[in-house]
Amino acid sequence: MQYDRLTRLFHMLIAFGITTQMMLTLMMVHPKPGREANIFYNAHEYLGAFLLGVLILNWGWTFVRQGPISLGHLFPWFSKKRLSALKDDILTHITYLFRLKLPSTDEPSPLAGSIQGLGLVIATALAITGTLILVYADPNQKMTGWLHDVKEIHEAFGPLMWTYLGIHVGAGMLHQILGHKTIQTMFGSV
Questions:
Q1: Phi/psi at 34 (nearest 5 deg)?
Q2: C-alpha to C-alpha distances, 62 to 23, 90, 94, 131, 169, nearest whole angstrom
């Protein structure tokens, strides 16, 4: 399957940005009353705001682009036909896994598309909540009210992103090892 240049560019920016963001979370110190944030926290905040911009542009492109990957492919949850295709694709993947193989990546996979759609939702939720914290939080005061709820949502989505990264990168590497050239397809000739 071939992706257009802009989709590949967005994927590269989002992949690099999210991976960097997740690595920064391992080194950052959150500000609290009486404790300053470190440089990793500050980098996390500003990179997150930049990623929100990239994600907004990516969402816009997803709505208007023509090609093999439609919005319905990323979010099959609202169509009986797409849910049926997702179920069939899951069964196909299970059958292939029992043979220690994976299906070809020549055609868009409903399973891969639905996982990618969930990843976009998780990334967008993290970027929105993180940017709200950047804009509205006072590092010298404890977060209360709605902003505390936003922080809780942001923190709850962090482990979901780690899980998504493990699944998405792991599946991509497995396909690559099996000769499907998924990395070249997504990142070649941006």
A1: 90, 0
A2: 27, 24, 29, 22, 21
Place of tokens 């709605």: 146
From the list 27, 57, 60, 56, the residue with the least C-alpha distance to 44 is 27
DSSP letters along 8-60, please? HHHHHHHHHHHHHHHHHHTT----BTTB---HHHHHHHHHHHHHHHHHHHHHH
Q: Is the dihedral of CA 140, 144, 146, 149 positive or negative?
A: positive
Kind and range of the H or E run holding 74: helix 71-74
pTM for this structure? 0.88
What architecture is domain 5-182? Answer: Up-down Bundle (1.20)
Q: How many whole angstroms separate alpha carbon 31 and alpha carbon 182?
A: 40
Residue boundaries of the structural domains of the chain: 5-182
Q: What is the pLDDT of residues 88-126, one digit of tens each?
A: 999 998 998 888 888 776 678 899 899 999 999 999 999
Q: 34-72, pLDDT tens digit by residue?
A: 899 999 999 999 999 999 999 999 999 988 987 767 788
Look-up of token digits 């816009």: 60
Could you give the 3-state DSSP secondary structure of residue 143?
Answer: coil
